[in-house]
Amino acid sequence: MSTRTSSRIGERAFILVMLAFFLLPFLWLASTAYKPSRDIFSIPPKLTFTPTLEQFATVFRLFDVWSLLSSSLLIAGGSVILSLLLGVPAGYALARSTSRYAIAVAYFFMAIRMVPAVAALIPFYLMMRDVGLLGSWVAVVLINAMLNSAFVTWMMFSYFRSLPKELEEAALTDGCTLFGSFWRVALPAVRSGVVASTLFCLMFSWNDFLYPMFLTRLDSKPISVALLSAYGTKDITWGTLGALAHFSTIPIVLIVLFLNRYFVQGLTKGIH
Fold it and tell me: Global pTM?
């Protein structure tokens, strides 16, 4: 029993050390947002300080925070909805395909998501310029949906493939159409997969920087691009960056913490 207790204590201590290691940069940046400017780079560093909101006041004075958040929500929400509308039915059709190449096609969709972002930027930039969508958040939604729907297809293929076909066959016997069996039987049964796909797509779109940087105008840029404004030609205004980081990270962190169990299910599901 003592050996088991010691092992458990060691495991928890290791987890705490690793957690502190990964959270330390985030905690430093978060605390910087509440430090007076003179204390941010004080030598030796001050572990205790009087919290202030002057960095947030500077952010609200220099940036239209609500406009930035609105653009981020429009881009993330539009990308997620379009990705699900395309990827979920595609994953179902692929999972119910009798072709022996179904798994290879599923991996092909996964490979699409692995394409380097910069490789798709230039041709997509020229395409959006020619159709008149360059400079709008619609362009970012389209390119994110193109990449994320491929990821959703791959993930939902795994979920639908693990679902017994007998459930849908029973629904067809009871008079359901093919679409009815998909909508009323198969889709509710893989609810966790849809939520996991939604969370992954939301993270990809919310944290995206490259595409909004080049495909949007100043009035349609999301908050992920606004973070770059903290980088000046001579220095970095760490206080402004820390305050802006609050608006960039807190919404997505709260959503992930609330639905974190679906991440585990999404990560542990595999192609089989």
Answer: 0.83
